[in-house]
From TrEMBL:
One of its GO terms (molecular function) is structural constituent of ribosome. This is 30S ribosomal protein S15. NCBIfam families: S15_bact. One of its GO terms (cellular component) is ribosome. It comes from Chondrus crispus. Belongs to the universal ribosomal protein uS15 family. GO terms for biological process: translation.
């Protein structure tokens, strides 16, 4: 098997592996200085006590080794835990808006980097409109919860209102954020 074919199949070279793990202690030292907490968060979403678990296990399970989908899954779990209204809540408007905002931020960076990616641009626009509809619903039903979610996610309240509102359409009053 040629070297290019070997690399194109997703295998990593031995040199890459050596470089990766040679720099791992440096990254672990920098992380230890930045985070004095002896517990480290892992890919599994668990807090690992660094005093009792070997360093190799901590390095293998750390979030910096997580794939993009695993990191997104963990962010989604954290958002659900943060914005849920009850213990079994996963679909309230607040949770949906928080998850959509995270996906919008993720896709915005991708679309800025890949300007010709029209499909992701379309899906980004669809996500923004879906979030806007959910925020309009939340504003109409319970303005207090709307104000709380706008503050928590650092959104602009004007992001709910479209500039292309037809003439004569009834606009909802913009609530004041104190």
């Amino acid at each position: 098997m040629s070297a290019t074919r070997y690399l194109s199949r997703g295998f990593r070279t031995l040199a890459y592996t050596r470089r990766r793990f040679a720099s791992a202690p440096k990254a672990a030292e920098a992380a230890a200085e930045a985070q004095p907490d002896p517990k480290v968060e892992s890919i599994l979403g668990l807090r690992i006590d660094s005093n009792t678990v070997p360093e190799n296990v901590i390095r293998a399970l750390s979030l910096e080794n997580a794939s993009r989908s695993e990191a997104r899954r963990l962010r989604k779990i954290r958002l659900i835990e943060t914005f849920r209204r009850s213990e079994s809540d996963t679909g309230s408007p607040e949770v949906q808006i928080a998850i959509l905002t995270d996906r919008i931020k993720d896709l915005t960076g991708h679309v800025q980097q890949h300007k010709q990616d029209k499909m992701n641009m379309r899906s980004l626009v669809m996500l923004v409109h879906k979030r806007r509809r959910l925020m309009k619903y939340l504003l109409r039903e319970t303005p207090e919860r709307y104000v709380a979610i706008v503050k928590a996610l650092s959104l602009r309240p004007s992001s709910v209102f479209s500039k292309d509102v037809p003439l004569g359409a009834k606009k909802a009053p913009t609530p004041k954020l104190n």
